[in-house]
Amino acid sequence: MLNDYKKLLGCALFLMNIFYLQAQTRLYVRATSTCVTACGGSWANAYPDLQDALSAAESNATIEEIWVAQGTYRPAVSDRSLSFDIPGDISLIGSFAGEGSDPDARSTTFYPSVLSGDLNNDDQANFGSYTDNSYHVVTTDGIGADLYVDGFTIRGGNANNTSNAKQDDGGGWYNSQYKGVSSPTISNCIFLNNRAQNDGGAFYNGGNYGTSSPVFIDCTFTGNQAKSGGACYNNGNSNVASPVFSRCSFTENEVVGSSATGGVLYSFSRAGTDNGTLYPGSVYPDFSNCIFAQNTAEGNAGALYFLADGTGGTANSVSNIENCSFYGNTASVGGAVYLNASNNGDNSATIRNSIFWNSSANTDPIFHYSSAGAGALPNINISFSLVDTDDCDNLIRDGAGSVDCSDLLFYTDPETPVFNDPENGDYHLRAESPAVNAGSNALVNSSTDFEGQMRIQQSDVDLGADEVEAVLPVDLVAFQVRAEGQQVNLRWETATELNNDFFAIEHAGDGVHFKELERVPGFGTSQESHRYQFTDLHPVSGNNYYRLRQTDLDGTFTYSEIRVASISASSQTARLYPNPVGDYLEINWTESIDTTLPYSLIDQWGREVQSGILSLQSGRARLEDLEGSLPAGIYFMRVGDQLFRLVKGSTR
After folding, report:
1. Cβ–Cβ contacts within 10 Å for residue 197, how many?
2. Count of the separate structural domains present in the chain
3. What is the pLDDT of residue 405?
4. Residues 464 and 599 occupy one common structural domain
5. Which controlled-vocabulary keywords does the entry list (predicted)?
6. Measuring CA to CA, which of 61, 143, 146, 529 is 20 to 30 A from 470?
7. Is the dihedral of CA 296, 297, 300, 305 positive or negative?
């Protein structure tokens, strides 16, 4: 009788929660909460367990975002096989204060939200006491391309179950799909001290016959370990697997074992056949404004390893490295980057405006090639970069392949002043560094450097991830943004101004691709305090990123730090499908209206590739003939005031 009563009570509480959730679009989670019924509606009655909030979001399509307060959250009490299984179509946002006078305040430094696989809270240095840790801290499986995760530390995963094909990969996060899409956007996250027995200490990305192309923005990978891909493993076996890394740092990751490969990344492509259909392997890894420092491989590739294996069909690996800094990476073979093409595989890398300094290896301290079977030899095209060798021929001394050099700076003196204090983790350029003003502005595809500051601050772009900061002509003492209803109010204050012409307010829906909204005149030269304000009447649903571009009377300009405000979805929005995109794209407005809406399509480097006017008939419109005009990759599409992330698959 008592058990029956408990079951009835449990059902009643479950139904109460479902009824309550139907009226809201956001859930709250706070580790110190004591809520037991009707949880999740506010910080005051937040879920104490993140797993409960994820389950509620999975069962309720109206939930659009989950806010998580500071604290440590574990996927289970003792079951190592459980993880935080995140559903698609939501925003999971962490590092809120969750209490006090401003519970909505966010800071990954002061209010960290930690997702931990350390179930017994007994982890030790060098992966000691990891035997009871979760196999994966986070998993995502076929979640589409709309999941957004921001502001978490993911640590303590230990994928060491060699009897399970998945549970020995991806200690921090395991991302996969089968004939679908699993391409989350991950921002402001720290992957710390995760381990995998096999592939991908911090992050495993893969699947079959579909697309798994995550985007990482402002993420840190430190102290992760695996056999292949100390930080990340990118599996392009019969799969489009094209991760994008912007403003990320990779430090002290390692791969261990005699055949260990890829201190930071192991990425490969290979074709596969399913029911008579051939699926090519296509990987296009992209790195911009990233730092690779003091990563190690007992075997090959201290930092990045790219493999294209043409066994069975087409396999392409085309990697892009722009404005990145490589320092002190170590391997037995190939200290920094290693390209391997075999059996008709096509493997190439383009490197621009970058720095390679103090890498070491028994064979080829900077780059290395290998090739087997017929097909094109691997190729590196490197331009406008600083390298610590004496000429192009010595970039690669061994292996079959080719290197194309142009406009390189060759330095062999280890005392050359390049970074401030790299041995202690300071990879800012010294003012007298030969990398300052040494790059090509024509090859720059990002507006900000590693720290989010203006990418070009003097005559020419600096090499590497960091731009030497110009002296600010304005003393900006405050800059705040705050969502109020369906608007965002911006306020800022200056203490002094020198030759200040105007402030340009810039906005981005993804934190990367900024566009100007408005200009506010400055006060020229002034020793008095001045206050400014601006209201964005048309923000996008979800996160809105803002920065100020302060411009002098002579046209020179500097950027403020980036601020974020979150807007709940308005009642009128659009649905875009299919995603991944094929030859066409349907736009379906929630209200059945006849109207016109402007749209623009932006690629992952911030370039507008298509724009126009949509003519909606009964709320519907269609873009045609995209197969030939739109290459495979990640895109952002703005329709009216809504921003969407799209994946364009390759033609099969």
Report:
1. 18
2. 3
3. 94
4. no
5. Cell outer membrane, Membrane, Secreted, Signal
6. 529
7. negative
